Amino acid sequence: MPGASRSIVVNAPPEKVFDVIINYDRYPEWLTEVKKIRTSDRKGNEVKVHYEVDFKIKTIHYTILAREERPQRMSWSFVEGEVMKDNKGSWVLEPEGEGKTKITYNVEVTVGPLVPKSILNTLVDQSLPKMLEAIKRRVEGT
């Protein structure tokens, strides 16, 4: 299963970063590829998150089960969707002192045999850094 991990340090405490990460309905405001999102079936610290994401080549729909561990981690597992066979990962938040947080985004995705590896490489090489910069802008209010 292809995976990737990227980190960034932001000028915000873990609690603030965690609040942005679990405010799923607001993702389209700072993640331009997320066109629609909704949640359902919340049970304690778990909730299903339904995405519509525009990957330029194709818009796909998928659902994950998010597990929230305030304020240090949000992890997810794949429920169902198009193109992907599996999608799991996490946001891990570590205090860096002086009100800063190290954010690490980990993801592992398995796609169907008809999806070119170049698409996955593009997601890792371009989308992950852009996403981390987007969350940095969002939590820092810039």
Summarize the structure.
By secondary structure, this protein is of the alpha+beta class. The protein is 25% helix and 51% strand.
Question: How would the blueprint of this fold be written?
Answer:
Elements: E1 3-10, H1 14-21, H2 27-30, E2 34-43, E3 46-54, E4 59-69, E5 73-81, E6 84-97, E7 100-111, H3 117-140
Antiparallel strand pairs: 1-7, 2-3, 3-4, 4-5, 5-6, 6-7
Total number of β-strand segments?
7
What is the average per-residue confidence, as pLDDT, rounded to a whole number?
90
**Percent of sequence in beta strands:** over 45%
The unreliable regions are none
Choose one word for the global shape.
globular
User: What is the CA-CA span between the terminal residues?
Assistant: 35 Å
Major β-sheet, in short? 7 strands, antiparallel
Oligomer: single chain
Structure notes:
The chain has 142 residues and is an alpha+beta fold. Helix content is 25%, strand content 51%. It has a seven-stranded antiparallel β-sheet, covered by helices on one side. A hairpin with a 2-residue loop joins strand 2 (34-43) and strand 3 (46-54). It is globular and about 45 Å long. The chain starts with a strand and ends with a helix. 18% of the residues are buried. The mean pLDDT is 90.
